[in-house]
Design a protein that fits this description.
844 residues; 35 strands
Amino acid sequence: MIGLWHAIVETPSMKMKLHFKVSKKAVYTLDMATEPLAIPIQIDTLSVEGNSLTAKAKAFWMPGEEIEVRLAFKEDAFEGDIYIPAIGKLPLQGARGRGPHLSEALIEEIVPYRKESVRERSDEEIELEVKSLLGRMTLEDKIGQMFQVLASNFSFGNAVATDPPEKLIAEGRAGSVLGAFDVSRVFKLQKIAVEQSPHGIPLLFNADIIHGSQTVFPVPLAWSCSWDMEAIKEACAIAAKEASASGTVYNHGPMIDIGRDPRWGRVVEGSGEDPYLGALIAKAQVEGFQGESLFHAETIVACLKHFIGYGASEGGRDYNTVDMSEATLRNVYLPPFQAGLEAGAASVMNAFNIYQGVPVAASEELLKRLLREELGFDGVLISDYGAVDEIVQHGFAEDEREAAKMAVNATMDIEMATRSYEHLAELVREGSVPEETIDAAARRILRLKYKLGLMDDPFRYIRPEKEQEYHFHEDHLRASRELAQKSIVLLKNDGVLPLAKDDGKIALVGPFADSKDLLGPWQFSRYGHETVSLYEGLVASGVEEDRLLYAQGSGVNEPLEGGIEEAVRISAQADIVVLALGESSDMSGEAASRLSIHLPEAQQRLAEAVVALGKPAVLVLTNGRPLVLDWFAANVSAIVETWFLGSQAGLAIADVLTGAYNPSGKLTMSFPAHQGQVPVYYNHFLTGRPLTEANRNSKYISKYLDGPNDPLYPFGYGLSYSRFEYSELRLDRSAITGTEKLTAAVTVTNNGDAAGEETVQLYIQDCHGSIVRPVKELKGFRKLQLAPGESGEAVFEIGEAELVYWSPGKGYGAEPGRFKLYIGGSSRDAQAAEFVWTDSKSKS
């Protein structure tokens, strides 16, 4: 019964395919996946008798309920049943392999709906067509385009009382659909829109494609650690290629919020704590998703979220209050959005939080004046899930009617999921909302549908034959593995890594030693059961199974009966221990804030028991946020931060552990030395009584009584199997004026035994300004690939553009004065020099 199996069942609402993967190392394991909707299923208990197995798993959507599976295997077939909460018990009959595609029949059915020779329209043509169509539409027709409805009863947030999507679409009361992951469902709903709605206007189909469609890439916090814009861009392009084949045309991503508090679960979706790097990654993601043209059938709309300040939620608690100055808003949180808009992002989504006491969804100051007027955004602005209704919950609007008025007057084009906009027609007729406001929103939505080619070819993205070709393609898996390799950060190494071929026996211990929960949150892959585990990756890398001793040791959050004892027993037989510990996917992401950012107690106890044996120990982390690792830093020989690496995770981790790939990742979020430091980030301010080396024993300074100010591992930090050494920093001049530029250079030498890549980082400090400036800010980086003994030069040009910031009264600009420049391997380990910049006016 070892191998891949499938079964197809009919439920009351859909045809479903179930995938099973049965494996055996020390014990049997079962992994499951479902399609068309990929439901995360983690098996809790498994028992095997002969050729039969029984398994139970928790149903995350119905707390307290369980999924139950019973399977009896023959040589190439099986039978049994599965109980799924809210569906009931279903009989199963299945066979080996992945089985046929559910959308197979659609390949022929879609043929009559294809249109040939559809060309990309010019902007002028689109404006004329939209104007003509708006002239034929009633007020209610226009408002109908401003609703996004759910594709099914499955909810991504609070349940919404509304009519079925089929009815809403047929009546012209929906312009877009969220969560139609099944291409057959997309076809059905699009047919209703085109054939039954008042003007036959096609629908937009939206989904959250955050770090891959069917081929899952590293989570964004991980891939940001690659500092590789081309690789990130390629990952997004592949995600768009796979998603668009299934009918998705509009992505609810990328998430480009700056994250400084690791308690906030959504740091996993972003690019870390730095606005400069975050802006570069935002640009790369938009270019990857949207390609050179939205008309191309293998690109999707990029939606920048969440505008703005969401990453500053107090206490790291999701959906919580945000309170910040305009200077912080503009200098820290706005740059990634500016970069994404400059790259051509066609959509923006509002943040859930308040700013200056006003929910962003209702903020004319942020949405109309800043986003639309100042930044020039004329694309589609969509609410986050239920955000219009939540204006009432915030206590800013009396009822949904008032909330709808506020949101639409703030230029919110689409209301996601909820139905507050049903009050808009009445509000227009009474004069509370100008009809021109509705026209403008409908115009932006229709314009986007023309740009995507939907108005001329409504079924162009429904391509089941391309699903079969693109999904989980070997080229896509290769790209996922390569980006995963680049995303791994080596935090500590006392010389035990890479693992030598003659290292003897390896004990692989922990809940992530043979887990497939390596994809992270916000993924809907139907191939989760084929994720490569760390155990499988090590075996594939050439580690013989008789050298590889395995014990789970504990669950992620709960101890296993006898688990520690078994882990200690097998570790005692080994020469080196690999501790595979971390967080489950549901411990990160939306609505996954944590009070404690330590590893769970059950895993800590496991680690302490195993490390007490005195064997060399390597900690391999699977997680979606920076964790407190002080005990591990003091007690294990090596720490490898792997995050959630995606479909090929186990192979990429094994590549690094065995030395087949030399780690090069650099942290994009600081790891605190103690939880009490949070939030801790490198680009902080000095304060009037800063801690220095000279005054650290004084009392009345900005410090803790019981620990350091500095993080354990700072932004930009990451080790290698190479040993990179920096020689003296050189400036070609110490003063520049106006548009002049200075050149800064440093020589980096690989004094190690392995070829490797070093990311050389440039930071600048404005020593005094019209407002206080950070101690340093990232302003550039260079990658050097160096062979053993080889030296390379990292050269940077610095001019006025690198010195610009926003201040009240002055707006954006550089200010004359003294600056410090730092170049090094991290925000902490850098050489310094000074220079002066004078503007032309000051010099004259």
